[in-house]
Amino acid sequence: MDRNDALLADWRTRALALEAEVGKAVIGQQRPLRLINTAVFARGHVLLQGDVGVGKTTLLRAFAQVLGGAFARIEGTVDLMPNDLVYHTYIGEQGRPAVEPGPLIGHGEDLAIFFFNEINRARPQVHALLLRAMAERSVSAFNREFVLPHLLVFADRNRVEREETFEISAAARDRFMMEIAIDAPADDGARSELMFAPRFHDTERLIGALAAAMVPHRELNAAAELVQRSVKTSAALQAYALALWRATAAPHEFGITLPDVDAAQLMLAGASPRGMSLLLRAARVAAWLQERLYVTPEDVQAVFVESIAHRLCFQPVYELHRPTIAPLLMAAIVAAVAAP
Question: Which of 17, 235, 257, 308 is deepest in the core (most CB within 10 A)?
Fold first, then answer.
């Protein structure tokens, strides 16, 4: 085993141990756990979607605990302004105005996870500032540039309440590697444990009981790049991924039909080049976590829906029905495009 193989094996052991540790704080969420872990090691930002109280914040705080590095969060509100992310003002002890760094820059380069709670309550101007931080991992404030090399942004959307909310633009959604749905556990055993086990009733104690800083977070970028260099894609796999890409833009050309939908008039735009690139980044990590150094169609399919569905732009007449149409379309594409 050469040095790179040993490093990959060591990091895989750490990644799986990290996932298992987070699993002690959340139950019935195995697939979201694996997907978030995949995004972490692919260094991609994550958008969460789910009802109120299903554990989205607990899940992210658990990852922050075991990953190490600094954790910061902000609550989306209708009156939130872009500057609220980078500084806040207050009256000091001497009765004079004072300014301090805000949550996005307060920890400097040590910031590992920034959690934007209920991002759809914030105005588009706030989204714009966040987009730059996500794309460039830097932000300007106090006449200087703050570099955030280890930053991962996690955001969630409240899909229950629609008043005083602002839909995230297609450009903003495209910056997120994945959109992951968090639902309440369907299993009665898991539901019973959440209801009656005392340890789930005190979130602070639940998170505090997890092992802290299980991985050196400042080395994650290098580890992620090693995975991307080491996990290969065959010519057949590349042709398969290209066919999936074409199917997102023109599903009717692959014989895809959906109930009450004109497939030839459905799409305004398919997946972006950025989206397909991020899909393959995630697929390589999925393969690596399965102890393989080559990507299979199953690896692509394992992350396809979460990596691509939120990027697709439907014609306006169909956009209002996105929650119903998107899952059906994703399943139809996977079924219609022949895997090697």
Answer: 308
Question: pTM higher than 0.70, yes or no?
Answer: yes
Torsion of CA 57, 60, 64, 65, to 10 degrees: 70
Boundary of a domain, candidates 218, 248, 272: 218
pLDDT tens digits, 272-298: 999 999 999 999 999 999 999 999 999
Read off the pLDDT of residues 109-125 as tens digits, 9 standing for 90 and up: 999 999 998 898 888 89
Measured in residues, the chain has a length of: 340
The CA-atom distances, in angstroms, between 86 and each of 70, 129, 165, 253 are 16, 10, 22, 47
Structure-token pair, residue 160: 């229950």
Quote the domain boundaries for residue 255: 231-336
Q: State how far the Cα of 168 lies from the Cα of 158, in Å rounded to an integer.
A: 12
Domain of 281, CATH number, reads 1.10.8.80
Helix (H, G, I), strand (E, B) or coil at 178: strand
